[in-house]
Amino acid sequence: MIKLGAHFGISKGFANVPEVMNEIGANAFQIFVHSPRTWKIKQLNVIDVENFKNKIKKMKIDKESMLVHSGYLINLASPKDEGWKKSIDTMIEEIKITASLGIKYFNVHPGSHLSEGEDFGIDRVANALDIIIEQIKDFDIMILLENVAKKGGNIGYKINQLGDIIKRTNYKEKIGITYDTCHGFDSNYDIRTKDGMDNLLFEINEYVGIDKLKMIHLNDSKFDLGAGKDRHEIIGKGFIGEEGFKNFFKYEKVLNTALLLETPGTDEDHRKEIAYIKKAIAQ
C-alpha cells in the first residue's frame, strides 16, 4: 500500500493527528513537536502522548509512515557558537519527544554556513550530529537530512553534500535522508523527465545509498527549475506540474517511500490533493 499523507498541526494535541489524517484519506503524517519558530518547548501532556500512541497502535500506523520535522531555528551549520550549541540542545530535546511518541524518523535541514563556506558547513553539521547522536543513540531514532533549496549559504542543496555529511559522522547507521521535490527542483533536479529522474536516483544511490532514502516531501514549485526560491505549490499547479509528477510516480522507489505533502492549504485542501494524487498514481 502506498504511504501518502501531509503535515498536520498539533494545536489540538498529538492525539488529534491520527484522526485528522484518517478523515482526509491519508495513512501517513508529519508533525512538529512544538512551535517551529521559537526555541521554547512546552512540557508534554502525558495523557495526550498515551492517547496518541494508543491511536497509532489501534490504527496500525507503522514507523515508516510517521515523521517529526525539526524546528526552523535549528542551524547545525552555524559558525556562531552560541546558536550552534542552542541548535544542538534544542534538537536533542525534540528528538527525546519524538522517541516518547514512538516515532522513529526525525527530519532536519542541515542549515546555513553563513558565508563561511560549504566545507566548513559540512564539517559543522557532521560534528553537531555526532554530539546529538551520542546523547540519543539508545533511542530507536533515525535522523533524516533533508535536501534544501540553493540559497543563503544552505548546506544540502546537492545530494553529494548530504552524503559528505554522513561520511564525516561517526554514526552513519543512524542517519538517512528526506528528498523534497520542490527543493530539488530549486537546485536543478528535474523530476519531470526520465533522464532527470534517472540522474536523481543515481546520485542518491551513489552518494548516500538508496536504502537511506526514507521519506519524500511532495511539493510542487511556484518557480521554474533552478530558481532557488523555496516556494511550495499545490501538486500539479506549479512548474513541476501534472505531467512532471506523473513521471515521478512511475518509479518504484518513489511509491515505496512515504509521500508527505507540505503544500499550501487547509486539511480539507489536502484531502482533495490526496485524492488527486491517488488518481494520478493509479493511471
TrEMBL record:
The keyword Hydrolase applies. Its EC number is 3.1.21.2. Endonuclease IV plays a role in DNA repair. It cleaves phosphodiester bonds at apurinic or apyrimidinic (AP) sites, generating a 3'-hydroxyl group and a 5'-terminal sugar phosphate. The lineage of its organism: Bacteria, Thermotogati, Thermotogota, Thermotogae, Petrotogales. Zn(2+) 1 binds at residues 69, 109, 146. Zn(2+) 3 binds at residues 183, 230, 232. One of its GO terms (biological process) is base-excision repair. It holds the Pfam family AP_endonuc_2. Binds 3 Zn(2+) ions. Keywords: DNA damage, DNA repair, Endonuclease, Hydrolase, Metal-binding, Nuclease, Zinc. Residues 21-279 form the Xylose isomerase-like TIM barrel domain. Belongs to the AP endonuclease 2 family. This is Probable endonuclease 4. CDD domains: AP2Ec. GO terms for molecular function: deoxyribonuclease IV (phage-T4-induced) activity; DNA binding; DNA-(apurinic or apyrimidinic site) endonuclease activity; phosphoric diester hydrolase activity; zinc ion binding. It catalyses: Endonucleolytic cleavage to 5'-phosphooligonucleotide end-products. Its cofactor is Zn(2+). It comes from the Bacteria. Zn(2+) 2 binds at residues 146, 180, 217, 262. InterPro entries: AP_endonuc_2, AP_endonuc_F2_Zn_BS, Xyl_isomerase-like_sf, Xyl_isomerase-like_TIM-brl.
